[in-house]
Automatic annotation (TrEMBL):
SUPFAM superfamilies: Adenine nucleotide alpha hydrolases-like
Name assigned to this protein: Universal stress protein
Domain of life: Bacteria
UniProt lineage: Bacteria, Bacillati, Actinomycetota, Actinomycetes, Streptosporangiales
UniProt family annotation: Belongs to the universal stress protein A family.
Pfam families: Usp (PF00582)
Record-annotated UspA domain positions: 3-139, 161-280
Amino acid sequence: MSAPIVVGTDGSGAAERAVEWAAADAAQRHRPLHIVHAAQIWPYQVRRFVPPDESERVSRAGRSVLRKAEEHVRTHWPELRVTTALLVNAAPDALRDESKNAFELVVGQRGHGGFASLLLGSVSLRVAGHSSVPVVVVRGETRTSRGEVAMGYAMEGEEGDVLEYAFDAAAVRGARLRVVHAWQISASLAESGYPLDEDRMSDERRARIIAAYAPLYERYPLVEVVNEVLVGHPVSALSAASRAADLLVVGASGHRWGVPGLGSVGHGVVHHAECPVAVVGRSR
């Protein structure tokens, strides 16, 4: 069986949209769907301290959330293979554990219970920045097809996994791929008075980007690629590109105290994009 697409749900409206997006993606990719609910029982997280009635109440509510999500998926995607899991654990840990062997992990923009603070950092930074598989944060418009996948290219030379995910996502959807690279002139260079040829510098960067994805273009010859290189802030440029995209793909390129995580650009995009955002880590 091919690796599944894992989606987290807590029964909120945002989580329902995440389940719908994950189901549609699973159907497009001919992959099974695995729906996970992480039951939060604070302050009784240690099992031996959980009152019996509280444990049963949480389990009953969790099973109801999963049942409704599964029924919704089976109604709209009857041919899709669907499994569910109810876990008593912190949401980031539960999702990471269930998605270790997955194709991708999908979460909602915000919710209640275990997903309430997704955009406040406690879940997004712990999951999107540290997952072993791509993490899709479903936000913005998801039901209208715009025919485009956008990708942020950071020019750091280690973005093969990000490029491959973006090309594959565009191919699966029959969509155009827009590769966006925004660069900024350093303050010291701007203040030096040295004459700058922004057009030439952008052309040089564009040539490097085309060379980087050339092997993938040969593998996906039907994917139309548009290169967008501009001077500006990456978050602003990618947020603008998201308005015309079905999916925005970025890399998890940040490092804090030597640990890989969700960088400032990825963090900003997750907050401001107007379409689902796929955060793709780099193979180590």
